Amino acid sequence: LLVNHDPRSSSQPFPALSSVSVCVRIQWDPEWNEVSTIFSYAARVFTNEFLLRGHGDMQGRILLALIVHGKHLPYKACFPNDGGWHHICVTWSSSLWAIYVDGERKDEGSSSDTSRDIHADGILILGQDQDSFGGNFTEPFFGNITDLNVWNISLESRHVRALNGCSAINQVMLFSWNLDHLINHPAVKELAK
Ligand SMILES: *[C@@H]1O[C@H](CO)[C@@H](O)[C@H](O)[C@H]1NC(C)=O
Ligand SMILES: *[C@@H]1O[C@H](CO)[C@@H](O)[C@H](O)[C@H]1NC(C)=O
Ligand SMILES: *[C@@H]1O[C@H](CO)[C@@H](O)[C@H](O)[C@H]1NC(C)=O
Predict the structure, then answer these.
(1) Would you say residue 146 lies in a domain?
(2) Residues lining ligand 1, judged by CB closer than 6 Å?
(3) Which residues constitute the signal peptide according to the record (predicted)?
């Protein structure tokens, strides 16, 4: 699935971002332990601009890591590989980043390598890594993804807790979940059940 739309206009590109938060609910296929990309935002000049990936470990957990401007941050935030729904939020503002799982901050840090703005006019893809701008998909996600929202600020813990509990927050969204704002990439095939 390809997301390159703004809720206010069907062709508005992503602006350059000095802060961003992405929250999403996922159900991870418990049989799948490989590295999987939950979402990837690629810019024309830099494909690994902002992405979230995860993989299963031997202790029955799914570990999550952010990549910002190509810098792979640690795999530490985790949730049990229990086949259930989990709420994940990632926040980033210049050098500070955090990963929240089910409303709790599970990892955070700062990295001077990540301080420039996120490039504008990128392509956001759900469930695949992009090895080229908008293409060459790798690291598929197996499971369900819903309620992915994007903000142009770094959300605070209280916002994330509210979202995890399905409460609304007042912050303006850059992208709000709506199937009409998603495009099926031509490579996506519907499989017979
Ligand atoms: C995804 O959702 C469908 C429909 O609810 C369900 O049948 C399926 O088991 C879910 N997949 C995973 C990996 O949980
Ligand atoms: C996609 O990958 C193939 C094989 O690695 C490569 O030949 C091709 O140039 C890539 N396409 C783009 C658009 O980068
Ligand atoms: C976030 O987006 C809103 C609405 O487009 C805009 O008014 C605001 O200035 C933006 N904030 C930042 C920090 O870019």
Answers:
(1) yes
(2) 27, 29, 83, 143-144
(3) none
In the reported structure, the alpha carbon of residue 37 is separated from the centroid of ligand 1 by a whole-number distance in angstroms of 18
At 171, which CATH number? 2.60.120.200
Distance from residue 114's CA to the centre of ligand 2 (Å): 27
* Ligand 1 center to 154 CA (angstroms): 31
Q: Is residue 93 part of a domain?
A: yes
Domain membership flag for residue 192: no
Which of ligand 1's atoms lies nearest the C-alpha of 83? Answer: 14
42, 33, 30: which is closest to 3 by C-alpha? 42
> Considering its fold, how many domains does the chain have in total?
1
Residue-wise pLDDT for 75-101, tens only, equals: 999 999 999 999 999 999 988 999 999
Residue nearest atom 12 in ligand 3 by C-alpha distance:
152
Structural domain boundaries, residue 178? 2-183
